[in-house]
Amino acid sequence: MDGGFLHDGGSPQEDGFIAVDRVEKVFHVRKRTGFLRSERRQVRAVDALSFTVARGEMVGYIGPNGAGKSTTIKMLTGILTPSGGRLRVAGIDPSRERTRLAQRIGVVFGQRTTLWWDLPLIDSYRLMHRMYRIPDGRYRENLDRLVELLELGALLDVPVRQLSLGQRMRGDIAAALLHDPEVLYLDEPTIGLDVVSKAKVRAFLRELNAERGTTVLLTTHDLQDIEQLCSRVMVIDHGRLVYDGALAGLHEAGDSERTLVVDLERELPPIEAPPARVVRVEGPRQWLAFPASRSAAPLVARIAAEYPLVDLSVREPDIEAVIARMYAERTSA
Amino acid sequence: MAEETYGGVYADAEPVRDRRRPPAHRRPSPAHPDRSSPGEGTYGRVREGLRAYRLITAMWIRSTMAYRASFVMTTLGNLVATALDFVAILLMFSRVDVLGGYRLPEIAFLYGLSATAFGLADLAIGSMDRLGRRVRDGTLDTLLVRPAPVLAQVAADRFGLRRLGRVTQGACVLGYALAAVDVTWTPLKVALVPLTLLSGGLIFCALFVAGAAFQFVAQDASEVQNSFTYGGQTLLQYPPTVFAKELVRGVTFVLPLAFVNWLPALYVLGRPYPLHLPAWVAFTPPLVAAACCAASGLAWRAGLRSYRSTGS
Question: Where do the TM regions start and end (chain B) (predicted)?
Fold first, then answer.
């Protein structure tokens, strides 16, 4: 029985499989101001961050560049030591018991490989087998399954440096899962991948989470990753959690706006169609912002009836903008 | 400091319950608990480190052996390149008979001890100087998420059997020196030769590790490290009499390179050491090596700790 204990996240067994309690990380950055003089400045990369993730959850962790995503992942994997607060993964303090935790987590860095660059893929796997002390039977079973699901069969004897980005990513994911980790951290797993590779990776992760109950925490810039994989999303900005909930709620919480781009027959004064407001005019083309929670249909109908319309398109709010607004509101409030 | 205050505040704000061991029926069933048996404490860490080192080097040796011809060529190349080093000394001796009061076989003895010791260290952990690059490009993080000591992983990375070339060359010169040098061998002197090689190798290893630890702070310092390791090795090929007293003092008391070969070799050769040290100092290299290893181990820990708190 492999999944019996998995879907009881709500039980009082633990506050969370991953428990982050007012964790912070302060970096001291030294900036050179003169020939020998330098200025020490504190950078709060993560600031009083608290959240919990239950076993078997699949959570998206997003935020603009430099928001503290990678720093959080590094603290959760034991790479970095937090400056304050309390952090537990599977009951283990990552920075204190790094190697013990390593047995129970899998990590995939989108930007760099954990595989041995110059050696064939299979060599890396064999080494993982020994290094993680994976029982032989389980190793073979896992390897066969991963090779099949991630379509690695033809790649096993190819040196990692010769793999394409998508192939390498699949190779990395397999490497991270050979030892049956209970948690899988993915840092930008689809960055730079083509559409087909992205689809493969997403399909695999969905299945992994559904069948094995592996807890997954993934950071991404790609909202589609979140839409297709995660029931829950956490947004971090300036080291603070600014949103934690369903993806659908993110737009409302951020009070975000969609944009209607309208091409008219000729240059006209700004269109009047509240609650939409014109944010930009460029010749016959006008940009109208309207709340994301409203339907675009009545607005389009009204404009079409009152103005000489040639073409139009609706743009969804992009995540960076949503987060920026969210943060602006928080600071002004 | 602010950090400490925070830690304290949190600990007070919420009493920490130990949830490390949930009831047995709640514990995840996969085969983890029995699989991981890394020992506790320094001894356990060393054992784990050696195990990881062995696993990784075995992988590299296997992969090297997949291209046997290429391995033979690069090893020969390595041997020839390092042999040129000694050829320079031979050329010098075609002009002079004595260098700093030493004849060729004696110089060859110094050279052989130093080159072989260095070659052994270079073979074992010569990849350490790549640490700075790993810090810069962030690949050190990938080592930190594996269940093995980082030092062992860095040391074993790209283990190059071709470096046997350097060891072979040093051993050949040493062989010649042992045959040609004019020494009345006592059991003590005979025993001192392998002991010196081993201690010398360890001292160079400690130097490699300390240099790597320094690269946590200064990531472009691999050249600084090289000047101490390769530079030190070259220095030791010549007798201490050709150098200024200050330098000899420096490599005896500050950076204990003199214990790699000078002190024991001069005892074997029956030569006086320029600094008037008691004779028993010739037998201290193993102790010095142990002290160096301990010190560099501490330096490494400090370096890694600072990396893990700053991430850069």
Answer: 69-93, 108-126, 167-185, 191-218, 247-267, 279-300
ipTM: 0.78
Distance CA B267, CA A74 (A): 53
Domain count, chain B: 1
- Which of B7, B19, B52 is facing A84, going by the closest CB pair? B7
* C-alpha to C-alpha distance for A63 and A83, rounded to whole angstroms: 21
Q: Model pTM?
A: 0.80
A11 → chain B, closest CA residue: B26
Query: Does the distance separating the beta carbons of B38 and A102 come in below 8 Å?
Result: no
Contact residues on chain B for A47, CB-CB shorter than 8 A: none
Query: Quick check: is B155 in a domain?
Result: yes
- The partner residue sitting opposite B308, judged by closest CB among A79, A102, A119, is A79
In a domain, B38, yes or no: no
Instruction: Tell me which chain A residues have a C-beta less than 8 angstroms from the C-beta of B133.
Output: none
The reply to whether A213 touches chain B by the CB within 8 Å rule is no
Q: Which residues in chain A have Cβ-Cβ distances shorter than 8 Å to B32? A: 103-104, 180
Q: Which two tokens stand for residue A94?
A: 């990552």
pLDDT under 70: residue ranges of chain B: 1-40, 311-312
B100, two tokens: 């700093």
List the single residue in A112, A120, A127 with the smallest CB-CB distance to B142: A112
CA–CA min distance A265, chain B (Å) = 53
pLDDT at site B28 = 42
Tokens 């079409």 label which residue? A304
The answer as to whether B211 is a domain residue is yes
Q: How far apart are CA A317 and CA B307, in angstroms?
A: 38
Q: What are the tens digits of pLDDT across the range B73-111?
A: 999 998 998 888 899 999 999 999 999 899 999 999 999
Query: Is the separation of the CB atoms in A58 and A10 below 8 Å?
Result: no
Q: Give the CA angle between residues A43, A48, A49 to the nearest 5°.
A: 105
Q: If pLDDT is split at 50, 70 and 90, which confidence band does A44 have? A: confident
Asked if the structure places residue B89 within a domain, the reply is yes
* pLDDT at residue number A177: 95
A180 touches chain B (CB under 8 A): yes
pLDDT digit string (tens) for B154-207? 999 989 888 999 999 999 999 999 999 999 999 999 999 999 999 999 999 999
The boundaries of the domain holding residue B259 are: 5-20+44-304
Pair A207, A128: CB distance under 8 Å:
no
Q: What one-character-per-residue DSSP string does A132-195 give?
A: TT--HHHHHHHHHHHHHHTT-GGGTTSBGGGS-HHHHHHHHHHHHHTT--SEEEEESTTTT--H
